[in-house]
Amino acid sequence: xxxxTYYLVLSAVLFLVGATGVLIRRNAIIVLMGIELxxxxxxxxxxxxxxxxxMVDGHIYVFLVITVAAAEVAIGLAxxxxxxxxxxxxxxDEVRSLRW
Amino acid sequence: xxxxLPVINLYAVMPQIVLVSAATVVLIVGLFERFRKGIPxxxxxxxxxxxxxxxxxxxxxxxxxSDVSSMMVMDxxxxxxxxxxxxxxxxxxxxxxxxxxxxxxxxxEYYALLIYAVxxxxxxxxxxxxxxxFLGLEVLSISLYVLIGFEQRDAGSNEGALKYFLLGAFAxxxxxxxxxxxxxxxxxxxxxxxARTLGGERSDAVxxxxxxxxxxxxxxxxxxxxxxxxxxWTPDVYQxxxxxxxxxxxxxxxxxxxxxxxxxxxxxxxxxxxxxIPLISVLAVLTIAVGNVVAxxxxxxxxxxxxxxxxxxxxxxxxxxxxxxxGSASIxxxxxxxxxxxxxxxGVLAVLSARGAPCATLExxxxxxxxxxxxxxxxxxxxxxxxxxxxxxxxxxxxxxFSALVxxxxxxxxxxxxxxxxxxxxxxxRVVVWMYMRPAAxxxxxxxxxxxxxxxxxxxxxALAILAVGVFPSELLQLAERAVxxxx
Lengths: 100, 488
Prior knowledge:
The structure holds two protein chains of two kinds.
Chain A: H1 4-24, H2 28-53, H3 57-87
Chain B: H1 14-29, H2 39-57, E1 63-64, E2 73-74, H3 76-102, H4 108-126, H5 130-148, H6 155-186, H7 191-199, H8 204-224, H9 233-240, H10 243-268, H11 273-295, H12 301-317, H13 325-353, H14 368-371, H15 373-387, H16 393-407, H17 411-437, H18 453-471, H19 474-485
Antiparallel strand pairs in B: 1-2
């Protein structure tokens, strides 16, 4: 059996890849993908721990998180589409009209 | 095999159930074009009903949601917080009516989302488990993402919404990963279980998971309360959002995050003192400093209020260190007063912006004292209160906050806080100076004619409340003390 540490390391890597993506990519859609990766990294940890403890609550949390993430992506994509209609770009570096 | 079904106590989550149903009713009624004008009044009615439900449950003591796990609890702390959120939403609806009509965003969804956001905050306030906190936070955040971007054709609103969304979802990722680590350390996401693990013998691995998890959680919550260094989104989002939504955002969502912080720290604090105190004192002082200093140079009023709200979040972080009933009560008192003050300040801008061009800068306020005496008086009261000048509620709030801090033995932090509070006098009073001592521009930004009655009612109510609490603070203080008594 694969020890639980492997899953935890993988989930940490997924989380970090996602966070890096959010910080360095400038395309709003790729940033969204990075956020999804972060959430899924956390999901993997939940499942791994729940499996280790032999409890179901971690698995249930994952289902709820998937639902939340779906709602979040729906809103996020809608906002990106609105941005594209208003500005003709999805590059978040070009979206900086709010300054003093 | 004998499996007993858990006893579910629906009564314990009645305020949340009523709020979610209210929002759904508003959403459905909002589909019918002919009820368009009535929607805000229906929202007010339903919010009042939820308020009555919450008031009726006050004092009934802690009632857990279910007997097998304590995901949510009904206690005075959560109920008082819910009442504050409902009051904030009522004022927001009142100042929204004319603003939303003028910008044709007066659709049913606007008010429905506002009530959904309140239900999310109420869930956060009642949660005793990280997972219910997360769900409440997401209900709140997703409603706010839409509300901020509600002016679809306005590029600023769009940009603010996208910034808040990207950073908010990023912060949610941190919170969720922190929760996963805490779950791994303690085998549960309940606050009490985490506190038990913190208090017990900790192996190195568990220690790493616990501190990592709590650190990530702090990053996520720090984003929500705009704590430095996670504050950069605040001015942009407040500036871009529709003004009533900015008012709601700066009071409600921040208050909800603070309520969670108080409840969470109330359980986990004893096992965490060593790590927590140095970290949070540095962050709180930085938050106060950045908020107050950058606010000095702002000329856009919404950005000025954004930096002022960052500074106020810093003040409210300070008593968390004292870990005393006094400290928590002073934060609750401060939150209530802060809600009235900030809704008043943004409300003045919203009411002015409803007619003609948006009122955004200090210049737009020039001559307001002679042009609109009542509105200028409200703004002056609010500004004095934000600055903490007696006899306003803002003074009493700061007084209790800093005295709790001194009683807890953090005199030097209280002194730093007071010094920066003195700095803040400059930018708050500058608003008053512009209103009363500068002549109006040739053509004022806002058109002549009467202002919305509902908006003025809300503003006068909050100004009167600020003055009343400033003169007779004991009632409200007792309420705040009663609320924190139910905490462990």
